[in-house]
């Protein structure tokens, strides 16, 4: 199994479009892994995680093959993760030679908007939509998926996903604070993870537990997960989804996370596990 991080920032990106804060200025000057687009990931070349406004840029930069992508899981309806206007680029007249039907999975708010879009005659060949509810277990293409409610803005119908295939499993836990007790228990019951990717929007600030997390909260969550048998010494641990408000560049995050064996994501990072 492998995951490729196409984008790794929160809503504003890094550096932010209009921002002149210290983190944005340092990141702009340093370039490279400090430059972050809005979060999106690709699993095994055929499962897309989220559809942000930077999807076109990710396709142009990394050149993934749309003919291989079968499904797309939407975490929630905030615009940095869900930009349905660009889904219509698959419609007749906007593209030629695209023969795939892309299967979208989303909870209430995003599902309603995707469903309205795919009902258009020009889109019926190109896409369909499946509504997902918290705690649903379902199959998306060749993947087994467990959807858990995220601790995030309720009106965005937020979900996080446990994804498994071929004897491997990962947890993509972004745009969430600390999971509820029920969600934690369901995740534990599903078994050990081979890779876990946790929200670290708050970077090196302290005490962020609701809506998003920061590094010290991620460490707390990982400790609890290790006690519950969700992760162990062989689990690949990644932090992702960074905001400039977290007050840290890529290099500063790496220095802080290295003692704990945690990988700091960057745009283009690919991990096989």
UniProtKB/TrEMBL annotation:
Residues 66-227 form the Metallo-beta-lactamase domain. SUPFAM superfamilies: Metallo-hydrolase/oxidoreductase. Gene3D superfamilies: Ribonuclease Z/Hydroxyacylglutathione hydrolase-like. It holds the Pfam family Lactamase_B_2. It comes from the Bacteria. PANTHER family: HYDROLASE C777.06C-RELATED (PTHR42663:SF6), HYDROLASE C777.06C-RELATED-RELATED (PTHR42663). This is MBL fold metallo-hydrolase.
